[in-house]
Amino acid sequence: MIGQRLIQARGDVPQTDFAAQLGIPKSTYVRYERGEREPDLRTCLALHSAGWNLNWVLTGEGPERLADLGGTAASHPVSHKSLTIALQQVEEVVAEHQLPMPPSRKADLALAVADLIEEGMPEAKVLRFVRAAAA
């Protein structure tokens, strides 16, 4: 369950502080931990930026931290194919939900999605998650 992995990621940090680090209200974060709601795109991007492996957060598969993949979010190379697919998925969801998103956030999100693809999450599953999280 995603909520259990978020509890593990939070560690000894109070829920209020962890929610603030992610840029979300504590009440929203509490719902994530209880499994009443799944993290949205912005929360996933914040987790990724903080060094958490989104494949682990979402599925429980792979190492917990990006650093354990042999690189960090900023230096972990992604293939041209994965990045192209990720950009297409992000653009599709942004347009579908008419989300206002500056180019820098789109780029960060596309890199996070490309990392999920590189880590072995099937493209269809990534797109389903991105759509569900954006809804």
Summarize the structure.
The chain has 8 helices and no strands. The protein is mostly helical and 135 residues long.
Topology:
Elements: H1 2-10, H2 15-22, H3 26-34, H4 41-49, H5 54-59, H6 80-96, H7 103-118, H8 123-134
Helix pairs in contact: 1-3, 2-3, 6-7, 6-8
Tell me about this structure.
With 135 residues, the chain is mostly helical. The chain has one domain (38-134). The protein is built from eight helices and no strands. It has helices at residues 2-10, 15-22, 26-34, 41-49, 54-59, 80-96, 103-118, 123-134. α1 packs across α3 (26-34), α6 (80-96) packs across α7 (103-118) and α6 packs parallel to α8 (123-134). It is globular and about 40 Å long. It starts with a helix and ends with a helix.
Poorly predicted runs are 71-75
Cα separation of the termini: 20 Å
Radius of gyration: 14 Å
- What is the overall shape? globular
**SS content category:** mainly alpha
Average per-residue pLDDT, rounded, comes to 83
Strand proportion, as a percent range, falls in: under 5%
How many beta strands in the DSSP annotation?
0
Summarize the biggest pleated sheet: none
H/E series: HHHHHHHH
* Tally of separate domains: 1
Percent helix range? 55-70%
Helix count, per DSSP? 8
Short descriptors:
135 residues; mainly alpha; globular; 8 helices; 0% strand; 64% helix
